[in-house]
Amino acid sequence: MARNNRLVIPEARWALDQMKFEVAAQLGIDLPADGYYGNMATRDMGLIGGNITRRLIQIAEQQLHK
Fold first, then answer.
1. HEC profile for 9-54?
2. Which residues contact 48 (CB under 8 A, 6 or more apart)?
3. What is the pLDDT of residues 1-58, one digit of tens each?
């Protein structure tokens, strides 16, 4: 099955990576320095992804209320 995971705005990759590291630090999850996440627990990655999604929704809601 083909996946389309390319970013609509490629410049956003840096901001998303920063958010990933911030969320992981807040949750006490150590991310591998080499960038390979294959050995990470699915639960941990899900927690990080879920929190990132939650933050992005909060940011969008704040933008809508302005």
1. CHHHHHHHHHHHHHHHHHHCCCCCCCCCCCCCCHHHHHHHHHHHHH
2. 20, 23, 24, 27, 29
3. 556 777 788 888 899 999 999 999 999 999 998 989 999 999 999 999 999 999 999 9
- pTM for this model (two decimals): 0.79
Query: Hey, what are 30's tokens?
Result: 């150590």
Task: Count the residues in the chain.
Answer: 66
Q: What phi, psi does 58 have (nearest 5°)?
A: -60, -40
Angle at 10 between CA 9 and CA 13, to 5 degrees: 110
Question: H/E element holding 64?
Answer: helix 42-64
| pLDDT reported for residue 62 | 94
Q: Tokens for 53?
A: 């999604």
